[in-house]
Design a protein that fits this description.
The complex is a heterodimer of chains A (488) and B (95). Chain A has helices at residues 8-16, 22-40, 48-63, 105-112, 155-162, 179-185, 219-229, 273-288, 304-319, 337-349, 352-365, 371-391, 417-422, 428-433, 462-475, and strands at 43-46, 74-78, 116-121, 168-173, 188-191, 211-216, 259-263, 292-296, 397-401, 436-444, 450-457. With 488 residues, chain A is α/β, with parallel strands linked by helices. Chain A has a domain at 3-258 and 457-487: Amidase signature (AS) domain (Amidase signature (AS) enzymes), CATH 3.90.1300.10. In chain A, strands 1-3-2-4-6-5-10-11-9-7-8 form an 11-stranded mixed sheet, sandwiched between helices. Chain B has 95 residues and is mostly helical. Chain B has a domain at 5-43: Glu-tRNAGln amidotransferase C subunit, N-terminal domain (Histone, subunit A, Orthogonal Bundle). Helices cover 34% and strands 4% of the residues of chain B. Chain B has 3 helices and 2 strands, in the order H-H-H-E-E. Chain B has a two-stranded antiparallel sheet with strand order 1-2. In chain B, a hairpin with a 2-residue loop joins strand 1 and strand 2. In chain B, helix 1 (5-14) packs across helix 2. The longest helix of chain B has 18 residues, at 21-38. In chain B, 17% of the residues are buried. Classes of the chains: A alpha/beta (488), B mainly alpha (95).
Chain lengths: 488, 95
């Protein structure tokens, strides 16, 4: 087994026994990135020198007996995380020259544990997209099939794990941006409950929906990373002050006696036959593992995409007002005064999808339309959230597909924003409800593309989510890795 | 049509976006399609429903009003497109 094919828990054993050093491991990853990234384009910035310095420091810690599960482990970050001294573009031309002056809380927590940061990963501009085609750094290619998208917006974060260009990564999820790419790339991705992980230092898209989470090779690594970054942060007033459970301690407790709900609105006619089949087999696996399978209804599911695209764009139009060419980022000034400078800067700096969402959000918040669009959407959000709370009165978890189809082709949906938005139909409701969801591999399509299974948990029940995911992962074998051209 | 060219131009001004003729044209059609889709929310009676701004109910978060060291002006200006005399420099605002 290649060094770069291994998990955090496997590598931790080898680092702590002294069998390998973090410097050697980091060099192996840097070499792997160099070999494979021309093909995948998962990285926007590779931090060779800083990573090797982090690794040398980790080796010192390990030699002194100071080792944590993440010490010396090479990780990478979606380019939305501020990381001191590193370029942070958020996939946008407008931040092309931006160097973070400080660390996001999540990044500081990883560094404190001695993790090595290999670099910054490609993404849809400002996390707006479902295919990673909206990036100033160009599209990411799916490691399973280079003509297909990796999903988005954390496309680089998912593709880098699948291509073994990092042991695990951090992404963000506003409407499915961790779970959908995890499904399309055959890795495990977790969107925690809103408030579970600090958003401080994470570039904002839609502040009431954004949440940070891990993407990893297996469920155990996901649990390890979540445990490392979760918890209250006084710098984020929306982070919730409640204890972080020891996710690893309960990981192997199984699902015997658990009630798993199947929301009937998620098993619709438009569902791809291979996806349907894989998810049905997963349901049988859970039955075999002792879970009780129950039919449930989330009656407002069909309104979630419409609700999301009003709330998320309204919040984005406000959050992205800060990119005005005054304090940071790229400025375009053609001598037409201050307002002209704002308009030209934003016209030159933002890509098409970002402009479209700013326009939609500005419209939804504008005088005369606020009640009809924004307020209406917030009321519908209440109904959607209530659907989940009602369902969780009767079941412990919900089980659904992650996306209606496996990864689609690059270019297939770029000219039709509405079709692109509908690819997030099964992930968006979880963000609106503010609860947690996880995507894990449950099979391959006839074309050899990964299919993802979504588990949805009660608010702050990430421990139950991880338990159920671990039980499935250990009862099945979907750990196959994609072959890149560089591997052949 | 829910969205007209004039409305797109008006919203672009509010959003401080200079759009090209082509962009105005394309965006009018695309925004019209999305607004047509979101129309479906009107199928739901939301009379008396309390709007959700945040999914996790929370009170205002207060902290003690204590002075702390700050990072300073040089640090804050390091990414400025233009700076002068410890200030961000912008085009003339008042003639």
């Amino acid at each position: 087994m290649q060094l770069t094919d291994q998990t955090i828990h496997q590598l931790h054993q080898r680092l702590s026994s002294g069998e390998i050093s973090s410097v050697a491991l980091t060099e192996a990853y840097l070499q792997r990135i160099e070999q494979t990234d021309p093909e995948v384009n998962a990285y926007i910035t590779i931090c060779r020198d800083a990573a090797l310095a982090d690794a040398a420091a980790a080796d010192k810690r390990i030699a002194a007996g100071d080792i944590d599960l993440l010490t010396g482990i090479p990780l990478a970050l979606k380019d939305i995380f501020n990381s001191e001294g590193l370029r942070t573009t958020c996939g946008s031309k407008i931040l092309d020259n931006f160097v973070s002056p400080y660390d996001a809380t999540t990044v500081a927590r990883l560094k404190a544990r001695g993790a090595v940061i290999l670099g910054k990963l490609n993404m849809d501009e400002f996390a707006m997209g479902s295919s990673n085609e909206n990036s100033a750094a160009g599209p990411v290619r799916n490691p399973w099939d280079g003509e297909r998208v990796p999903g988005g917006s954390s496309g680089g974060s998912a593709a880098a794990v699948a291509a073994r260009q990092a042991v695990a990564t951090l992404g963000t999820d506003t409407g499915g941006s961790i779970r959908q790419p995890a499904a399309h790339c055959g890795v495990v991705g977790l969107k925690p409950t809103y408030g579970r992980v600090s958003r401080y230092g994470v570039i904002a898209y839609a502040s009431s929906l954004d949440q940070v989470g891990p993407l990893a090779r297996d469920v155990e690594d996901c649990a390890t990373l979540l445990g490392a970054v979760a918890g209250y942060d006084p710098a984020d007033s929306t982070s919730v002050d409640r204890p972080v459970p020891d996710y690893l301690a309960t990981l192997k407790d199984g699902v015997n006696g658990k009630r798993i709900g199947l929301p009937r609105e998620y098993f619709i006619d438009g569902l791809d036959a291979d996806v349907k089949c894989a998810v049905e087999r997963a349901i049988e696996t859970y039955r075999t593992l002792g879970a009780e399978i129950v039919d449930v209804s989330l009656p407002h599911t069909d309104y979630a995409v419409a609700c999301y695209y009003l709330i998320a764009t309204a919040e984005a139009s406000s959050n992205l007002a800060r990119y005005d060419g005054v304090r940071f980022g790229v400025r375009r000034d053609e001598g037409e005064g201050l307002i002209g400078m704002y308009q030209q800067t934003r016209a030159a700096g933002f890509g098409e999808e970002v402009k479209r969402r700013i326009m939609l959000g500005t419209y939804a918040l504008s005088s005369g339309y606020y009640d009809a669009y924004y307020l209406k959407a917030q009321k519908v959000r209440t109904l959607i959230r209530q659907d989940f709370l009602d369902a969780f009165e009767n079941v412990d978890l919900l089980l659904t597909p992650v996306a209606p189809t496996p990864a689609f082709k690059i270019g297939e949906k770029v000219d039709d924003p509405l079709q692109m938005y509908l690819s997030d139909i099964f992930t968006i409701p979880v963000n609106l409800a503010g609860t947690c969801g996880l995507s894990l591999p449950c099979g391959l399509s006839a074309d050899g593309l990964p299919i993802g299974l979504q588990l949805i948990g009660k608010p702050f029940a990430e421990d139950e989510l991880l338990q159920a995911a671990w039980a499935f992962e250990n009862a099945t074998d979907f750990s196959q890795l994609p072959q890149l051209a560089a591997d052949r | 049509m829910k969205m007209t060219r004039q409305e797109v131009e008006h919203v672009a001004r509010l959003a401080r976006l200079a759009l090209s003729e082509d962009e105005v044209e394309r965006m009018t059609g695309q925004l019209d399609a999305v607004l047509g889709y979101v129309e479906k929310l009107n199928e739901l009676d939301t009379e008396g429903i309390v709007p959700t701004a945040h999914a996790v109910p929370m009170e205002n978060a207060f902290r003690a009003d204590e002075s702390r060291a700050s990072r300073g002006v040089v640090w804050a200006l390091q990414n400025a497109p233009e700076a002068t005399d410890e200030c961000f420099k912008v085009p003339k605002v008042i003639e």
